[in-house]
């Protein structure tokens, strides 16, 4: 029997997880994460992750569960203790490996001709089973997980299929949500980069070929090399209040450092896609010490206002353009291109 469209979509998500694991295997670290550990992709840019965790410089991987999010049952653990964190990492790896069981179950139920409701109910129950199984070797943690489930869902095993249907309004969504992963917990145990393509496929963060917004891109750049600013920094702009709270500190820092200056009409336009030329100008301002090693490239589509900054970058060998004499100045910056810029910041 042919797979349903939903089954194919979930298969795509799981393929992303498989590819991520192949690129960065879920092997336990032989030693604790080094001091100053940093992910290639900062979890602080992921709203879904930050709903459950907090930045914690003393934590092994820089993040710990929040006492107010869905991971509150784990908030009292010592996330600066490498042994505790590595134990949690092992549990997480085992749980994610169990997702393959869910996919095999999905295929079997689909082949049997089960309707979407029965499939969603069965898969949801399996997910609850796997989540609890991750605590099987730690009675205290198992008890805490069940107590958390009881308080949050009224069921110690986790959310029931009926409660999920009431929340999402369709069995298709219930089924799709069963295959989601908690990006916050991944960040706490060192697996965030390994699962990043899954977050992209799930729409939690921009896909590689997706244009990134000004607030997202500026935050990513400042997080790599800057500090927080204050709310006062953004109040001077006509649309400063429209900046998403998650990104506000980093945009404020960019304004305070003279990196982000806004538009002539006094706006920031935080949700608008960032253009390539704007991104390169931001990069130039973040790299004021870049030294010239050659003559600047005479890009044919370089706007006059950006010329000094772009010329300095190209003269330093940090900018090559499209290879056809153009910069692609007005093209939107993609997530993959942003990753390249972040790499140049070290």
Structure, described:
The structure is a single chain. Helix content is 49%, strand content 2%. The protein starts with a helix and ends with a helix. β1 and β2 form a beta hairpin. The chain is mainly α and 346 residues long. It has helices spanning 5-23, 47-50, 82-111, 116-133, 139-153, 161-168, 171-178, 183-188, 196-201, 214-225, 231-235, 248-256, 276-286, 307-315, 335-344, and strands at 53-55, 63-65. The longest helix has 30 residues, at 82-111.
State the gist of this model:
The chain is 49% helix and 2% strand.
Number of domain modules: 2
Total strand count, please? 2
Give the radius of gyration.
Answer: 23 Å
Number of helices: 15
Strand-and-helix sequence, N→C? HHEEHHHHHHHHHHHHH
Structural class: mainly alpha
Which segments are poorly predicted (pLDDT under 50) over 5 or more consecutive residues? 1-8, 13-32
Mean pLDDT rating: 86
Tell me roughly what share of residues is in helical segments. 40-55%
Hey, roughly how much beta strand do the residues contain? under 5%
Strand order of the largest sheet: 1-2
Separation of termini? 50 Å
Main sheet properties: 2 strands, antiparallel
- Silhouette: elongated
Question: What keywords describe this structure?
Answer:
single chain; about 350 residues; mainly alpha; two-stranded antiparallel sheet; 15 helices; 2 strands; about 50% helix; about 0% strand; elongated
Fold topology:
Layout (H helix, E strand, L loop, with lengths): L4 H19 L23 H4 L2 E3 L7 E3 L16 H30 L4 H18 L5 H15 L7 H8 L2 H8 L4 H6 L7 H6 L12 H12 L5 H5 L12 H9 L19 H11 L20 H9 L19 H10 L2
Antiparallel strand pairs: 1-2
